[in-house]
């Protein structure tokens, strides 16, 4: 057999394990070795330069140009010592990936020699010829200028290749007129806003010593691994990251024998190597395990400050892909690479921690500390309740649509799971107000706040947003996403909510209420307002869809519709008021995201058409031909017609499926063309969503039926069981 599929299967059988060596047996010996971290800065920077960077990180203060020159010079020495020859600004444009454009340190001099140079200007700002990054109309291509600007709060690092090393400098990316063209710029603004709000509430009501807040994020990353040879024989995986066709295997995840099972040796080697490379870059990976679906895995780092956690996650995804290739694997980060088995997410564990070392989302032992906990806990619930649609929009993507709201996926309803204990606490809390409302002022007693003992087993894996003991876990984020999208929204709405809370409480205090009374009464009101978003049951069940509808919660199933929340009046007010996005920036982003959706679906449509016409139908016809020849020869030697009824049946079935595929493909191509005639990008996106995409299912249905019938040897695309089980 010479088809790619069978060659690939051969290749997989003969894969050799790749030796992996760590710089040292102890991770602590080499953790951060390729990062220009505090230790490296102390060694390579003058005292002034060190202090300037330190203050920029800790206090957000500006670094002037002469100091920037010193920092650049120190950074260059460090990088050259490490063997780096190039440097790049490393940024996160709205394509979802990271971007880099390398420049050599080396510069020829007039006397025919050369030197290694790196100036403060090159460190602080660059003007990449960035005309091809999405800007949503914020920049004309003839006016290609976009600027990258250094983000000192995320340390520079060295990316190692097999034959070269590059100094990478994390930066934001903005247009000539200052509008954000990336994820990092608005993220930093959102974090700044929420930090101020947290400090304000904490220091006014609970603890004057709170002068800084640390917004923490731990990102669990799910992914699939597929052998590279098999992957290369699947054009759909190559071009779209997911299988557009493929009959479900007899065995999927129903035995649940993969979850937390022993890690296959080749996968284990891959994990060890990407962990080593991650440690060198300061990514604090702690956990690795098999996930529920066959060939699905997860890794998770220790939580870090949000901006750093996101840079690390972006870097991690890049590393995983590079290291996987060395081990003959391809990493699938797509949210739903295979129908019929689980998809992948990127759980965002989020909490708020003060400079006094208190996790504000961790219940305390005393009523006072619990009032502080309840303040942040309830405000978070209220924020998500009031901006559920924005939260939904923040995780919307063509890939994640298969995980949310589609068949065999959880619904796209935003709800919050808080566990039985806290659910009861909030219930009592708000009921208490009702029963004593006639005498509200004096009846509120801080000592009535119960001690909160959390039950660790109280978990709900079906909730899109779950409280898990000392943090909220935003579980609906897609595995391929840049977490910044979700974190910009979550931190912005939290900042806004805390500010509103402060205004309300202050007003009550001004009217003569005691501080605790004021806080409690506002919190009670919030619990009442947001109760309908709390849900403790099975979020994947049909009953929840009905119940949620009764409660008036939205269930926005598709990306083009979900994105509308970004440009509603409410959202624009919220983002503008808190200094995160201007209205123009939101319009541009909206346009980019709709456009991105269109491109993704269009690529899938074109590829599916191509696979159907050039692979599925020819394979079907070959087999039909074979059957016909068989029938003809049986007839020629006088066999009774009854004896070859089975062949007839197959011949007919093949014709039926082939015809239906062919007409559906024609229809799909037509709808694809029509979609581009819509009035605007949003309408085009809607057309792709509701007119083009549904035909995918029809084509797939008939293709999968053919895969079931057709002789195995004639089927050229690796089958699900091979992709999922051959290692
Ligand atoms: P799970 O049971 O969901 O896998 P883990 O205990 O393994 O939960 O934690 C998952 C992630 O949550 C890890 O990345 C961890 O560092 C992170 N995490 C733990 N505490 C916090 C916190 N206070 N803030 C943010 N993330 C946290
Ligand atoms: Mg988890």
Structure description:
50% of the residues lie in helices and 12% in strands. It has 3 domains: 152 residues, Glutamine synthetase, N-terminal domain (Ubiquitin-like (UB roll)); 384 residues, Creatine Kinase, Chain A, domain 2 (2-Layer Sandwich), CATH 3.30.590; 131 residues, Four Helix Bundle (Hemerythrin (Met), subunit A) (Up-down Bundle), CATH 1.20.120. It is α+β, with helices and mostly antiparallel strands and 727 residues long. Bound molecules: adenosine-5'-diphosphate (ADP) and magnesium ion. Adenosine-5'-diphosphate binds next to strand 9, strand 11 and strand 14.
Helix content: 40-55%
- The structure class reads alpha+beta
Cα(first) to Cα(last) distance is: 20 Å
CATH architecture of the largest domain: 2-Layer Sandwich
Radius of gyration: 29 Å
Number of strands: 17
What is the C-level CATH assignment of the largest domain?
Alpha Beta
Mean pLDDT over the residues: 91
The largest pleated sheet is described as:
9 strands, mixed
CATH fold-level name of the largest domain? Creatine Kinase, Chain A, domain 2
Please name the fourth-level CATH homologous superfamily of the largest domain: Glutamine synthetase/guanido kinase, catalytic domain
Q: How many separate domains make up the residues?
A: 3
């Amino acid at each position: 057999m010479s088809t790619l599929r069978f060659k690939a299967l051969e290749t997989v059988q003969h894969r050799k394990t790749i030796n992996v060596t760590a710089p040292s047996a102890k991770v602590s010996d080499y953790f951060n070795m390729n990062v220009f971290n505090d230790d490296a800065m102390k060694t390579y920077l003058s005292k002034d330069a060190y202090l300037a960077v330190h203050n920029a990180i800790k206090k957000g203060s500006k670094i002037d140009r002469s100091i920037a020159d010193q920092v650049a010079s120190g950074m260059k020495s460090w990088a050259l010592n490490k063997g780096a020859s190039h440097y790049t600004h490393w940024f996160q444009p709205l394509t979802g990936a990271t971007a880099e454009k390398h420049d050599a340190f080396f510069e020829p001099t007039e006397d025919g020699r050369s030197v290694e140079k790196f100036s403060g200007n090159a460190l602080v700002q660059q003007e990449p010829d960035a005309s091809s990054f999405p800007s949503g109309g914020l920049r004309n291509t003839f006016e290609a200028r976009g600027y990258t600007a250094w983000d000192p709060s995320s340390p520079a690092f060295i990316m190692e290749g097999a034959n070269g090393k590059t100094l990478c400098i994390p930066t934001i990316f903005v247009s000539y007129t200052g509008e954000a063209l990336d994820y990092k710029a608005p993220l930093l603004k959102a974090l700044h806003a929420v930090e101020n709000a947290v400090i304000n509430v904490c220091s006014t009501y609970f603890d004057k010593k709170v002068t800084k807040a640390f917004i923490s994020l731990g990102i669990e990353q799910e992914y699939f691994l597929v052998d590279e040879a098999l992957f290369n024989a699947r054009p759909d995986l190559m071009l779209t990251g997911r299988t557009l066709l493929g009959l479900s295997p007899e065995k999927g995840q129903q035995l649940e024998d993969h979850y937390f099972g022993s890690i296959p040796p080749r996968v284990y080697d891959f994990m060890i190597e990407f962990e080593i490379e991650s440690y060198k870059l300061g990514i604090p990976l702690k956990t690795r395990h098999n996930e529920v679906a066959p060939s699905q895995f997860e890794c998770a780092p220790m939580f870090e400050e949000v901006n750093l956690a996101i840079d690390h996650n972006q870097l991690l995804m890049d590393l995983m892909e590079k290291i996987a290739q060395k081990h003959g694997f391809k990493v699938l980060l797509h949210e739903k690479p295979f129908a019929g088995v689980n998809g992948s997410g990127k759980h965002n564990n989020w909490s708020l921690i003060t400079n006094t070392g208190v996790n504000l989302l961790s219940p305390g032992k005393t009523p006072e500390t619990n009032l502080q906990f309840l303040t942040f806990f309830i405000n978070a619930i209220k924020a998500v309740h009031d901006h559920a649609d924005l939260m939904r929009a923040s995780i919307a993507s063509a890939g994640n649509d298969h995980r949310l709201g589609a068949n065999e996926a959880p619904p796209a309803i935003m709800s919050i799971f808080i566990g039985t204990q806290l659910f009861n606490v909030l219930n009592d809390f708000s009921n208490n107000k009702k029963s004593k409302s006639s005498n509200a002022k004096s009846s509120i007693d801080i000592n009535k706040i119960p001690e909160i003992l959390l039950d660790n087993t109280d978990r709900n894996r079906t909730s899109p947003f779950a409280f898990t003991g000392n943090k909220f876990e935003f579980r609906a984020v897609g595995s391929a996403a840049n977490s910044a999208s979700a974190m910009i929204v979550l931190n912005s709405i939290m900042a806004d909510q805390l500010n509103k809370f402060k205004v309300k409480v202050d007003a009550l205090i001004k009217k003569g209420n005691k501080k605790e009374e004021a806080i409690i009464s506002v919190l009670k009101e919030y619990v009442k307002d947001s109760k309908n978003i709390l849900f403790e049951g099975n979020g994947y069940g049909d009953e929840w869809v009905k119940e949620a509808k009764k409660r008036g919660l939205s269930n926005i199933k598709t990306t083009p519709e979900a994105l509308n929340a970004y440009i509603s009046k409410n959202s624009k007010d919220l983002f503008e008021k808190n200094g995160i996005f201007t209205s123009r920036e939101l319009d541009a982003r909206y346009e980019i995201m709709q456009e991105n959706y269109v491109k993704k679906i269009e690529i899938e449509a074109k590829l599916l058409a191509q696979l159907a016409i050039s692979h599925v139908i020819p394979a079907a016809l070959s087999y039909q031909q074979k059957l016909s020849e068989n029938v003809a020869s049986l007839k020629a030697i006088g066999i009774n017609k009854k004896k070859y009824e089975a062949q007839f049946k197959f011949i007919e079935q093949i014709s039926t499926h082939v015809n239906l595929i062919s007409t559906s493909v024609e229809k799909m191509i037509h709808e694809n063309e029509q979609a581009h005639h819509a009035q605007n990008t949003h309408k085009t996106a809607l057309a792709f969503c509701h007119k083009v995409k549904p035909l995918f299912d029809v084509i797939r249905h008939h293709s999968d039926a053919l895969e079931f019938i057709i002789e195995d040897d004639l089927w050229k695309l690796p089958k699900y069981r091979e992709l999922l089980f051959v290692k």
